[in-house]
Design a protein that fits this description.
With 272 residues, the chain is an all-beta fold. 0% of the residues lie in helices and 41% in strands.
């Protein structure tokens, strides 16, 4: 029996690259594989997980500094393992959290002399070290300043009070690696996708599991985002046959998605 190849309705769509003078060059992007974004941004900076030898580092580049980055631009380098994720605080553009293979999360403040600085930034503001294995995701609460969700390959998500350096809640029940986490609009709920092919929603205040449903059936990565202030989520992932998919969910009923959409057949992750 012959196989059926489905054509994507997006196959003729293409992007236009920015002009060279509007681009960032000479960025040494990390090659450490993890289901996170290697580059994040806020209104002032971009943060890049850096391909650094002998430990972990990331680079913060002002958005006004387009063009070729000078070779000795300062790095943020205190981790002893590769940096896997960074996230800027929604309350202070100069505060950033980093997660790494050394089991630690570090909180940093961008120095005012960053562009002129010659030496690396090696002193974080705080170190959060409560995880037993590598830390993969850091996501700030959108409404409560100083509250940070951190996922780890120890199959937990910890909610930290950064100011006190204390864990407020630990979310568990995951059967495999956590692939993505996301706060809802008012910071009361956390959604998470997992390699066990489940989508889960937790109460961030009590740590209790509120909803759980079967999600994308493929073995590759999956992402989740909330849709504004609605009780709706979108996940991206793969089918068993490596079709890229998008699911729309009602956060109150995770028995099955409201809408399922086939996108195409490709190996690249869809980033919602």
């Amino acid at each position: 029996m012959g196989s059926i190849v489905r054509s994507s309705k997006f196959r003729h769509i293409f992007g236009t690259a920015n002009k060279r003078e509007e681009s960032f060059e000479n960025l040494r992007i990390s090659v450490s594989a993890w289901d996170t974004n290697f580059v994040t941004a806020n209104p002032k900076y971009i943060s890049v997980n850096w391909n650094a030898g002998g430990g972990g580092a990331f680079c913060i580049v002002p958005q006004t500094l387009v063009g070729k980055l000078r070779g000795e631009f300062p790095l943020f380098s205190a981790h002893s393992g590769a940096v896997l994720d960074t996230a800027f605080s929604p309350f202070d553009d100069d505060v950033v959290a980093s997660a790494a293979e050394d089991h630690q999360v570090m909180i940093w403040r961008v120095p005012k002399d960053l562009e002129e600085r010659e030496e690396n930034v090696t002193e974080p503001v705080a170190v959060l070290g409560g995880h037993g294995r590598k830390v993969g995701h850091v996501v700030w609460n959108p409404v409560a300043e100083g509250v940070l969700a951190v996922s780890s390959s120890d199959s937990t998500v910890k909610i930290w009070d950064v100011g006190s350096g204390q864990v407020r809640q630990t979310l568990g029940g995951f059967k495999d690696a956590i692939l993505s986490i996301a706060w809802n609009y008012d910071g009361s709920l956390i959604a998470a996708t997992c390699r066990d092919k489940k989508l889960r929603i937790f109460d961030a205040r009590t740590g209790s599991l509120l909803q759980e449903g079967s999600s994308h059936t493929g073995v590759k990565g999956s992402r989740v985002v909330w849709l504004g202030n609605q009780s709706r989520l979108v996940t991206t992932g793969f089918s068993r046959s490596s079709d890229r998919e998008v699911y729309l969910w009602d956060a109150d009923k995770l028995e099955k998605p409201i809408v399922t959409m086939f996108i195409d057949k490709s190996s690249g992750m869809l980033m919602p």
